[in-house]
Specification:
The termini are far apart. The protein has 4 helices and no strands. The radius of gyration is 13 Å and the shape is elongated. The protein has 78 residues and is mainly alpha-helical. Helix 1 packs parallel to helix 3 (53-70).
């Protein structure tokens, strides 16, 4: 499997985009904050299961950084 690392990286990128979208939606949609943040957590869990713990740690760091940059409600990120 030569392209296994590329596949894991691409899958992590897709999961990261979904996570950021759920976090952003959770900060804008009133009443569904906890549901959308739980969905973002579930996507992160899938990323760790599919790509491994090493890529999962990088995924968590990237999701946290992008969340703090893009989300206007910083309290949701804490």
């Amino acid at each position: 499997m030569r392209n296994n690392n590329a596949k894991k990286l691409a899958l992590s990128g897709v999961y990261l985009a979904l996570t950021v979208v759920f976090i952003l939606a959770g900060s804008f949609v009133p009443g569904f904050e906890m549901t959308l943040l739980a969905a973002a957590t579930a996507v992160g869990t899938f990323a760790i299961i599919e790509t491994g713990i090493k890529n999962g740690i990088l995924f968590f760091a990237a999701a946290s950084l992008l969340g703090f940059i893009f989300v206007p409600n910083k309290l949701a990120m804490i």
